Amino acid sequence: MRVLIGCESSGTVREAFRALGHDAWSCDLLPADDGSPFHLQEDITSLLAMVSPSRLTAGAFDRWDLIIMHPPCTALCVSGNRWYGKGKPKHAERLKAIEWTVALWEQAVRVCPRVCMENPVGVLPMKATQWVQPWEFGHGETKRTGLWLHGLPLLRPTDIVEGREQRIWKLPPSADRWKIRSKTYQGIANAMAAQWS
C-alpha cells in the first residue's frame, strides 16, 4: 500500500507503516528528523496537486492509497486563544490557518479514497469523526486529539493504561517545544498502521 504522511518530519507514523512493509513516505517543509530517504521535503499541497483523481496508474507520486495528515495546529488549537482568538493580535493568522487546513482536507479527499487528518482540540469548522487519547494506546498521558476520517474505520484503542498526566502541556519553554508537542505518540502511530493497512 502506498501511504503519504503529510506534515510530518518526525517519521513516527511513516516508520510504523514501513515496519509493516508498506511503501510509506512522509512530507513536510522541514527535513526528516531521522534523515530518512523516504521523506519528501516539500509543500504537501503541491504534492497533492500532482495527483489526478481519475488516474489509476501508480507512477512516481501520482497515486496514494492512504493519506494521513498532521497540519500545523499552533494557530488552530484552543490553547492559543489568547494570541489567536477574535480581537487578538494574531487572529488573522488563525483565519488563514483555518482556510488552508480546510482546503488541504478537501484536496486530499478528492484524490485519495482513505484520508485521516489529526489535530488537537481547536477551532476548525468541521466536526472531528472521533477523539482519541494517548492513554488508550499505551501512554499514560492526556492529549485529546481529533481524527477526521474519510473512508476509514474509527481507530480502536489498543492498550488502555493508567495515568492521566498532562506532560505535553507542562513542557518548559524551548525553541523546539512546538515540535515535541506535535509529535505523534508511538502507540497511536502503531494502531494506525495495524488497523488501517
Structure write-up:
- With 197 residues, the chain is α/β, with parallel strands linked by helices.
- It has helices spanning 12-18, 44-49, 81-84, 91-111, 177-182, 186-196; strands at residues 2-6, 23-28, 39-41, 66-69, 115-120, 130-132, 145-150.
- The termini are close together.
- The model is unreliable at 55-59 (pLDDT under 50).
What attributes does this structure have?
alpha/beta; 197 residues; seven-stranded mixed sheet; globular
Mean pLDDT: 89
Strand content: 15-25%
Cross-sheet strand order for the largest sheet: 3-2-1-4-5-7-6
Rg from alpha-carbon coordinates? 16 Å
Runs in which pLDDT lies below 50 for 5 or more consecutive residues are 55-59
> What is the terminal-to-terminal distance?
7 Å
Count of DSSP-assigned helices = 6
**Helix share bin:** 25-40%
SSE layout and pairing:
Elements: E1 2-6, H1 12-18, E2 23-28, E3 39-41, H2 44-49, E4 66-69, H3 81-84, H4 91-111, E5 115-120, E6 130-132, E7 145-150, H5 177-182, H6 186-196
Parallel strand pairs: 1-2, 1-4, 2-3, 4-5
Antiparallel strand pairs: 5-7, 6-7
Helix pairs in contact: 1-6
Task: Describe, in short, the structure shown.
By secondary structure, the chain is α/β, with parallel strands linked by helices. The chain contains six helices and seven strands.
